[in-house]
Amino acid sequence: MASFAQFGNDLFTGKRSFNIVGRRRLWYAIAAVFIVVSLLGIFVKGLNFGIEFRGGTELRVPGVSNMDSYESRAADTLRAEAPEAAEVSVTQIGTNTIRIQTGELSVEESNGAIAALAEEFDVADQDVTSSFVGPSWGETVTNKAIQALVAFLVLVSVVLALYFRTWKMALAAIVALLHDVVFTVGIYGLLGIEISPASMIGFLTILGYSIYDTIVVFDKVRENTEYALESKRTTYAHAANLAVNQTLVRSINTSVVALLPVASILFFGIAFIGPGTLLDLSVALFIGMAVGTYSSIFIATPLLVHLRENEPEIKALEKKVAKRAGRASGKLDASAPPGMETIDHAAPPGIKTIGADGSGVALLTEDADGSEPDQLPDPEHLGGTNGAGAGDADETARTVHPRAREVHPRARGPRNQPKRPPKSKR
After folding, report:
1. Is the pTM of this model over 0.70?
2. Is 2-47+137-308 a domain of CATH 1.10.1740.10?
3. Which of 109, 260, 275, 387 could lock 105 by a disulfide, CB 3.0 to 4.6 Å apart?
4. Which of the listed ranges 7-11, 143-147, 261-265, 385-389 does the model predict with the highest average pLDDT?
5. Average of per-residue pLDDT values in the chain
6. Is 299 in contact with 27 (CB distance < 8 Å)?
7. Is 56-133 a CATH 3.30.70.260 domain?
8. Residue 139: how many CA atoms within 13 Å on its side-chain side?
């Protein structure tokens, strides 16, 4: 646990960093493969809608003592009473209940099937239940779910655009959101999982979780990028990548904590409860929450940087950072964290390695022409918070050339300091 905490601290301070934004083409390719496979599952293999959507008759036989070959026995018994019945689906619910779903049966066929199933599985006739569901009910649920999805996307887009003061953040979040929904529904199609009204509720629920995780990441992205645009000391992409790394451990921890209870429900639903509302809901939540974490990290932020990289303000920032780095050292050190430049020995006077707490963090105290910089980096952006992590920041900042000038704690005082009086001669 301590090592994982240290790992998270290293990511936050910038001592360690994953180049997530820089490898966005790789994440785009992976997402494209996922989407294509999901679309094949949706439109080629097709979705397995439950009886609530397609309509039909459902019969339940509880208290079965002998479950041997229950699927074939139930199917053969039903077809003997209703030869023209549509496709028959037989599943086990709990430990001793059998559920049979088929197309619409007439009253005579339904009564005959109840008596035959009761005799086959040695239960009382009155214990076997039969219910009919019309397809109009499922159609109503589908229409309402689509309306809720459209309203949700519109409201989320407006709120994000107002909150982050840019429509491009809202667009990136919506794209990540649609990625999650398509992938989740595609998994249902590929695996043939039955879609019930509870599944539809799960699809809508994962939208809220996914957008929450994305907003957490975007909030840190906004903080870092606003600082970058004000200080002119690091690029927009570098600041955004640092934000993703700083929220990486938080996103993983939040997702694990949220997935644990859902995984427990899923396990008990498969092992003991069987098909039903609880299992349908937990399957949708588990898939959607897992893929939502992935999209918040690897889709939303890289896409945001991609959308903004051609803006005049972002291009001007990149030129400013490149120009400053070129005057200081010829180039930026790729291994240095955002906001910490590698200083070459040829840098003119005014380039010093000082820290807010004397830790030796590399800062540009003056521009190459001797003028004051626009703004000094905040210690929090360089890994030091209230003196914490000073040692890590010191180790990270040792990209400074050995012959660069340093300010030692015992450096010389002001030049106009009065001299000591000469010793008197005896």
Report:
1. no
2. no
3. 109
4. 261-265
5. 76
6. yes
7. no
8. 5
